[in-house]
Amino acid sequence: MFNTRATIVAAASLTRLVVKSKGSFSNSTRASPTKLLLLNGGSQQTTSRSATNTTSPASSSSSSEQTIPSSCPYHQKDATSNKEEVKPQPWTEVPGPKPLPLIGNLIQVQTNSKNMSEYLMTLCKQYGDLVKLTVFNFNMLMIANPHLLGELYKKEERRNEVDSFRHYKLKKGQILTPVEMRYDEDWYSIRQLYNIAMKPEYQETITLPQLSELNGDFMRRLIKSLQSVKGSEAFKYVNSSETNSRYAFDVVMKVFLGVKMTDEVTSTLPFDINEFVNYTVHATDVAVRLTTKFPMYKYYRTQEYKSFENLMDKSSEYARYCIQRFKTNPSQNARLLELIEERAKDQDRPDERVESVLMQFLQGGVDITVRIMNNCFHRLAHHPECQEKIYKESVAVFGEPSLEEVTSEDGLSINLEQYKKLKYTKHFIDEVLRLNAFGYLTMGRKLDQDTEIGGYMIPKDTMILAMQRWATLKDEFVPRGEEFIPERHEKGSPLAPVNNFVSLPFGVGARKCPGSRVATTELLIGIINAVRHFQLCNNNLASFPPSSFDQSLLYIDSEKYPLYFTPRDHVKEFVEKNSKVSQ
């Protein structure tokens, strides 16, 4: 439910920024320094870049350098403003791999199109936080500086549409989602339907009451996925992807359609839920690959596009079946469907619009959220001290855990007042999203006009790629950035990211991921349920498991790096009776 399709594509008191000039680095200010011009009405700040592309302490600056006062350096008055202003350098001078005649960097891009993440990180290490790429006459600028991104996104709202999904839906005559529409098209009206899920008032009246009915089933399914380990009290979490995917599917069905997908109800479906999940995940994977290549599929149906089309046909068929079957609310609790229908009734093709919105939530909810849930479980296992803090927080809010939470029909009940008290758990999720997101890039934009960024004049129609992985690991943007520290997200923490543009897993602006509120609620409830009844571990791995790059979106391979759940005393007997026997 995270912003998948948008992805397709220092300390807080920072005192010195790195500036690259014609491919070389300097530790001292030159007679005619390169100016870092942000999009803030023309304010400027002289800065310097160290040889290692990191912030240097002020005490080590040479006497020739301009000392920058504390507070945000980008909005300070330049003490040297009486000097002649330096004109921005042309696009040809932006750092980046040397393009070949006519085709530009096509070979490098296509060679790494399976997953661009590692390649783009390598470019940041080589060229800094502004990197140019060109394919034929199509320009791309990768920005890995959250200050530059912050100023850019305050002003620039034109985005690239996701061509692969757009092409598919136009051919099928289907309603486009906002991220599939061009900026000059009426994306705003259908976006209003998606925004229903973001409204905070519905978290208390719809999301939490509906999700509280799923906790019992989730825990019992999780326990059925545990396999005993000879000579150990721990149980191996097998088929974890299926269990997590089923929970994610159940969440969307419950919140939007009000139906509780019990085993009895599921057995009456004309398809297997795992099939729906697989079709959806693979469709997204192929769509991202298509988006990173020259769109040959627009001129003839390539084999890769045919595969994408078949996957989307199946995923859409199954999603459409669920929507049609459960049009009538089977729950006593309110659901989001009626609110979306009410908002859509005065729009063109209202029924098709509602169906399109629900399909998008179903398809997005079983892909991205599952990857993040898996990452959360791996972080719990790798950081027992964080796990213990979450457990103690849950006890303070809900009391001691009991077997009834696992055996009762609905399980643990959570209301809004209790939810708001789970602050450390929320910070834990924020830190997982910062360090273990499903991609390194986010928030593609396209410039409406020639724009000065970082001392360079960037031409109109250049596609902007936001590289967040680079910034989130650098101490100048996130103190001790490579460390997993949930407390950094507490208000006033000295370890907080330098601004809100360091980590934006849900995107930003008018097209921010509309499922973000439901997704974070789902993640939090899943974590609380797991930690209240189990202690998670990963066989004491020396380092955190790496992400796998064989798909377009990142994930941790739980087959290669299995998780183990040790039941707490109150559920030991129940787990032993209901888990899988070791083979």
Structural overview:
A hairpin with a 2-residue loop joins strand 8 and strand 9 (about 455-460). This protein has helices spanning about 5, 105-110, 115-125, 145-155, 165-170, 185-195, 200-210, 215-225, 240-255, 265, 275-290, 305-325, 335-345, 350-365, 370-380, 385-400, 405, 415-420, 425-435, 470, 515-535, 570-580, and strands at about 35, 45, 130-135, 140-145, 225-230, 235, 440-445, 450-455, 455-460, 465, 535, 565. The protein is globular, with a radius of gyration of 25 Å. Helix 12 crosses helix 14. It has a domain at about 185-440 and about 475-580: Orthogonal Bundle (Cytochrome p450). It starts with a helix and ends in a 5-residue tail after the last helix. It is of the alpha+beta class and about 575 residues long. The longest helix has 23 residues, at about 305-325. The strands form four sheets. It has a four-stranded mixed sheet. Strands 5-6-12-11 form a four-stranded antiparallel sheet. It has 22 helices and twelve strands.
The CATH superfamily label of the domain at 187-438 and 473-578 reads Cytochrome P450
* CATH class call of the domain at 187-438 and 473-578: Mainly Alpha
Query: What is the terminal-to-terminal distance?
Result: 36 Å
Structural class: alpha+beta
How much helicity do the residues have? 40-55%
The DSSP helix count reads: 22
Q: Tell me which oligomeric state these chains represent.
A: single chain
State the strand order across the main sheet: 3-4-10-7
Question: If you compute it from the alpha carbons, what radius of gyration comes out, rounded to the nearest whole angstrom?
Answer: 25 Å
* Architecture per CATH nomenclature, i.e. the level-2 architecture of the domain at 187-438 and 473-578: Orthogonal Bundle
Mean pLDDT: 85
Strand content: 5-15%
Unreliably modeled segments: 8-81
Using DSSP, what is the number of strands?
12
- Main beta sheet, described? 4 strands, mixed
What characteristic shape results from the CA principal axes?
Answer: globular
CATH topology category name of the domain at 187-438 and 473-578:
Cytochrome p450
Biased composition (Basic and acidic residues): 75-87
InterPro entries: Cyt_P450, Cyt_P450_CS, Cyt_P450_E_grp-I, Cyt_P450_sf
Binding site for heme: 513
Region (Disordered): 40-97
